[in-house]
Design a protein that fits this description.
With 364 residues, the chain is mainly alpha-helical. The protein starts with a strand and ends with a helix. The protein is globular. It is 70% helix and 3% strand.
């Protein structure tokens, strides 16, 4: 006996919509079981994790700060994944975007100009795009697996950032702390509202989501992404280049990840330091799939995953659980999203190997 997945001839549009909600519900149920095993009251723990962070104004600003990079990165990844190119290295592109975008405020720290901030954003996006071009080159030139190459490049970027902030870019007046000079006022993203820290990075994310939604729905480039993602052979018959799509999708997603990186450094941190991300590039993968690879759905999914970061911090203080609980919730959510999607596309079948069992009886 063996288990097989048989592709469904017709997929239910209702279940396709309900699937993310079902995945969220299952995550809450199993999260409650996890809290019970930890000796905590499940309802109280889930309240601390998902409701408590929404009750204060400053907390809502923090939610927006954490949602901005998740949405921006996930929107770029959605283009990649729909074109059947699997960029797993957005965390590295995020880091490189932050590094390249920080060249001007760190190297020319006495430069005060209105042009400084726009140039930083452009340089950050270019840095992320160039770093995304590396796995694109390796795939198109040597047929390497972009999953592996993009993932390995993450660690190179992180170690390079660590070397910079502990070495050549370390602030000489920073009391030997491993961080760069603080950015001047002209290099800091302005806040959206005076009531908190939420900055223009959220606006970048929302504009990018709307622009990519329009591209995917109404432009030839979006049509190319969908066709080549569903069938490369059909795309070739239509005159579309799969090779060019590899370059476009990886560089495009890299550019948005790089923009997210420099926005995070400029808007939330104000300088470079060895750690600038709690794993936004990897969490954005969950955001992309929870949002059904739809830029508008990604906006909502980005806030949900941002809430897990805030909820993890709140739960540490209120009920005394480990910060690893956040990772567990994110892992559960990804598992159930992919499981629900699999059951929408396939049905599970038990196959009995009758020929083998018959031959076994004959031998006996």
């Amino acid at each position: 006996m063996r288990i097989e997945l048989e592709r469904r001839s017709r997929q239910s549009p209702v279940f396709a919509i309900v699937s993310p909600l079902l995945a969220l519900g299952l995550t809450l149920v199993f999260g409650g079981i996890m809290f019970m095993l930890l000796g905590k009251d499940p309802l109280s723990a889930l309240y601390s994790f998902f409701i408590e962070p929404l009750l204060e104004v400053w907390s809502l600003h923090e939610l927006a700060i954490k949602a901005a990079p998740l949405i921006l990165i996930a929107v770029g990844l959605s283009v990649c994944y729909r074109s059947n190119n699997w960029n797993i290295g957005a965390e590295g592109q995020f880091t490189v975007g932050a590094i390249i975008g920080s060249i001007l405020p760190i190297t020319f720290y006495e430069w005060h100009s209105p042009l400084l901030l726009p140039l930083m954003m452009i340089m950050g996006a270019i840095g992320g795009a160039v770093y995304g071009a590396i796995p694109a080159f390796l795939k198109t030139r040597f047929n390497t697996n972009e999953i592996l190459t993009s993932l390995m490049l993450v660690y190179i970027a992180q170690l390079f950032l660590d070397w910079l902030t502990r070495g050549v870019w370390k602030d000489p007046a920073g009391y030997n702390f491993p961080q760069s000079r603080s950015f001047v006022t002209e290099a800091v993203l302005p806040e959206i509202l005076s009531s908190g820290r939420a900055h223009m990075g959220l606006i970048f994310a929302l504009v990018a989501a709307l622009a990519v939604w329009f591209m995917m729905r109404f432009t030839l480039k979006g049509f190319q992404v969908v066709v080549l993602g569903q069938s490369e052979r059909a795309g070739r018959f239509a005159g579309f280049s799969a090779r060019k799509m590899v370059w476009f999708s990886l560089m495009f997603s890299g550019a948005l990840a790089g923009l997210a990186g420099i926005s995070e450094v400029s808007g939330s941190i104000g300088h470079l330091q060895p750690s600038i991300s709690p794993g936004y590039g990897f969490t954005a993968i969950i955001v992309a799939f929870l949002g059904r690879l739809n830029p508008l759905g990604i906006i909502a999914a980005g806030f949900v995953l941002a809430l897990t970061y805030l909820g993890g911090e709140a739960a540490q203080l209120s009920i005394g659980v480990s910060d690893k609980v956040t990772r567990v919730f994110q892992g559960l959510l990804l598992f159930f999203v992919l499981s629900c999607d699999t059951l929408i596309l396939y049905r599970v079948r038990l196959v009995f190997d009758r020929a083998r069992s018959a031959s076994g009886k004959a031998v006996s």
